[in-house]
Every structure is written in C-alpha cells, then in structure tokens.
Specification:
With about 120 residues, the protein is mainly alpha-helical. It has helices at about 15-20, 25-35, 50-65, 65-85, 85-95, 110, and strands at about 1-5, 5-10.
Length: about 120
C-alpha cells in the first residue's frame, strides 16, 4: 500500500487512476505527474519501485496544493467572502446556492429538506 500525501492509494489500480484518490489531483494533474516522473500510463501502483514512489511524493509536495492545505485554503476563501459581506458570502452564510441557480423550485441539496407551511390547506 503506497502512501502519498497522507492518503493510502490502491495498489491494484493504474498509477494515473490511483493518484486521483488524493484530494486536489484530477485526471489532468495525474497525467502531468506521471509525465514529469517518467512513469508509463499502463503501470500499476504495485509495480512501482520505492524510488518512483518517492519521486511522485516529492513532485506532489513541491508543485501541487493537495489534501489538508487545499481544504484549508478553500475554507479560508469562503470565510473571506462571508466576512466581506459580498453577495457570494451572504449566499454561503444563508446556505443557499452561490452560482446563480434558481431556488423557487429545486435547490433542495443546499436548502435541506422541504419544510411544511403552517396553515396551508389541501383542496
């Protein structure tokens, strides 16, 4: 079991796929990392040598913002918007959609379960 950036990546999968288990690394960054280190796309994690795993780990630490640091930065960005009191910050504060989606219907994921309206009668 290879451990990179504090995450145990699966050993049976290809390296490009396994790297995507790390928060902040998607398909593009995974391919970029494999190219930088010089690992073929079809290589599996269990076939990697310790030196290659170390190279991958050093590349990620040096060039990419991942896991805890990335989560912290995103939370700080949201907190900054909320402290400013800008429109996006207010939407975050109220727990409503931020990117202009409609809320008259839908938006149940952000708003939570529907609340019953008192006094409304069925006809």
């Amino acid at each position: 079991m290879a451990r990179i950036a504090g995450v145990n990546i699966p050993t049976q999968k290809r390296v490009v796929i396994a790297l995507q288990y790390i928060h902040g690394i998607g398909p593009k960054f995974a391919n970029d990392i494999c190219e930088k280190v010089g690992i073929p796309a079809e290589r599996r994690v269990q076939q990697l040598t310790d030196a290659e795993v170390l190279q991958i780990r050093e590349t990620i630490d040096r060039d990419y913002l991942v896991e805890g640091d990335l989560r912290r930065e995103v939370i700080m960005n949201i907190k900054r918007l909320m402290d400013l009191g800008c429109y996006r910050g207010l939407r975050h504060r109220k727990g409503l959609p931020v990117h202009g989606q409609r809320t008259h219907t839908n938006a149940r994921t952000r708003k939570g379960p529907a609340k019953a309206i008192a006094g409304k009668k069925k006809s």
